[in-house]
Amino acid sequence: MLRFHFTPEDLIKVRVATEPHALWEIAASLHRLQTREGRWAYAPWFHDACGSLRRAGLDRAVKTFLVPLFPRASYFPDFLTPPEGTQGLDAGLKAVLATPYEQVMGEVGTLDRGVGAPAWARRLAERDMREQLVDTLRAYHRAVIAPHEEHIQERLHAERARHAHTLFHAGTEGMLSGLGPTIHWRAPVLEIDPYPDHRDVHLDGRGLLLIPSHFCWHTPIALADSGLPPVLLYALHHLPARRSPTGSPSLSGLLGPTRAAILRASATGSTTTEAARRAGVTPTTASHHTAVLRDAGLITSHRHANTVLHTLTPLGAALLRTGPGGER
Question: Count of alpha carbons within 13 Å of 171, Cβ hemisphere only?
Fold first, then answer.
């Protein structure tokens, strides 16, 4: 079990990442390649990724260079997922290059003692070897993650809208209570169970950065070194992929007043009941219209407990910016 111990100050310092953390997504996606667990949720990506890696000539590098550093085990080095990754891939890779020699050696040693590390891993303390690692990580990201960035951004936007909605109605503790089935808020402690090892992290006023992850599956992940800025990577909820039915409505058919009102409500995230109130219709009618908007690819819907939250897709946001009524 992993436990984060909060002080009152920590509760006001809980943050949610505004962008996907490129290096955490690399790490979690490499874990997806190493197991069939949750494969149904990633089947299209897995098929595309394997083909992309072969075409890019990266399949061997992934197997012999990246997977040994990112094993699907209880530990992999913290320096591979630096905090700067929330600022984008370039910032994260720059931080990997700048990791102090002592930290690299210490974490590679921990990897070796825990699950075993290849003999060449200690050379990561040298600049040239780390430059080779950074080049490989960049190529891997370009091949298997960059093509899906819009979808990942869409899901992260929906998650942030869900959190904003929960914060408004139930505060920080309500948000912490709804992070996932293995994450439990028992004030003043956030418990993750099951977890590969038993650890207590005392935040002591540092707060906690929550990082929603597309490729994380089921079990959240935290940094091993409790002295580093505390983060918790947790899985976004997955639904089976849906395809729009043949003959789904054209965009022009979606610009009636009721659907336009629901689309506007979805810009900041809204439940079916809230969308109904905004459009002046019953929840049953609103549910019908959200289904049409969803099938047209304009909104996405995520269920949490007994609530369904609707948010815009990039296409829906573009329509809202340029569509009838002069939405900007």
Answer: 4
